[in-house]
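Bench notes, afternoon.
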Amino acid sequence: MKISNELLRYLSIKGITDPHEQRRFLFPQLTDHYDPFRMNEMDKAVEELRRAVKEHHKILVWGHADLDGIASAAMLKFALEDLGTEEVGVRIPSREVEWFGLIPDELRELKASGMDLVVTVDVGITNVAEAALARELGLGLIITDHHELMGKAPDAVVINPKLRESGYPWRQLAGAGVVLKLVCALYQRMVDMSVEELARLRPHYWTFAALGTISDRCPLLDENRLIVRAGLDHLRSGAWPSLEIWLKEMGFEAERLTVFDLYSRAISVFYAADPEEGVRILLSKDRRWLGVRYAELKESAIEWQRGKQWMIEEAERSARHIGGMVISVSEDIGQAYLGTTTHALRERYNRPAIVLVPKGKLWHAECRGIEEVDLLEYLSQFESIFVTFGGHRKACGFTLEPTGLEEFLSAVEANPIKLSPSQDKEEIVFEPDIETDLKDWALLAPFGEGNYPPRLLAQGVRIEEAGEGYRANGIPVYLPFALRPPPQSDGKFDMEYTVKADGTIRVLRLEPAG
């Protein structure tokens, strides 16, 4: 495909000026994957797992109760069994459990039952005491995680691209992205299989990693972009039974599936299930059972969607602007809506947002930041107030004793977050020639966190009805119902639009040409 000068100029505006990086962005290839052994302690983890498989040790995967953790656990379980482990157990504490990560009493029970090795996915980097207990018990422990290290590292084999000593070129992998790197390393070391061959024979690993990356709203740049593009391509092919049936039950056309579809509705079905059942669903090939179970979960997901708008409205009603952030404290927002309402506040006000709700004896908080500031670093100054605390620069969480709530709000007010002066500036709108073929702009997809659809402008275009649709200067465009019919004018408009993943033009705003 010929790349227009306008598209290359747009990439330059985004800071992608090197021809190699432009090729890597527009035409990512499996060979663009970084060597997994560049990640700190990857070699140790692979050797320990290789020995465990060879010596028939009992292995358990311990995950986190979100889709990133569920997809990670499914991926690693499948890989270890594919490589020769008789059966790999999975433990993912439910979302109702207050403890985050490894649970001490359960570690003792696992050791007593004869478990040899626990491998965490998407969790564990803050479990310093639990790692010490595992060592004391003689229970092997490998931690794979992508959350920030908030202090001392656990005494275990740790794979995490965010560790200072990691040496890995891309820090923003999802938990499932980290597990994908471990899986690639295992196949390379144990059966001499290249990344390209693995992607051909086991492409569902990339699909699982894409689901984790998308659901955790990791930036769709660099290696994440490669993972998500490859994963979505396989997802659209319908070659993995559980995901093919999932999309059918949720009413999506696989070939037209977008990241936004997954954000908005599709992944909600996995939050309606128990997280350990989510792993069973992803790995199942029983089409009849999958169809029945997805239909049941879809009803729960629909109920969740119905409650979402009310919860968002409640978050907005109770929101206060404190210390440069939007903070909502409410006893009426359900725990299941915590992340969704926080994200909605962030999007609504374009400010860092925090939503706090009571759960058990503690206040639980979800936090969502913006690109310009490191929210995790800002909140770390209040760590002495928190019971637990961790996450990423743009998405993190903490818990508070009831007596610590007002102390925290007062501390934020006294120490406001520093926002960039560019915070309120609008994104640059680019003006390519609409008369040219814009289909190459679809190469910017997949669109999502960190890689939003381009905002483009065409001035003085003529909008005309054409059958059941509309044309701009003779070019077919999609005009949303909210913009129909176009406002009265002499027929010429300044049109703000974007190019969708399938190459079609979607109109965002119309104003009579001045």
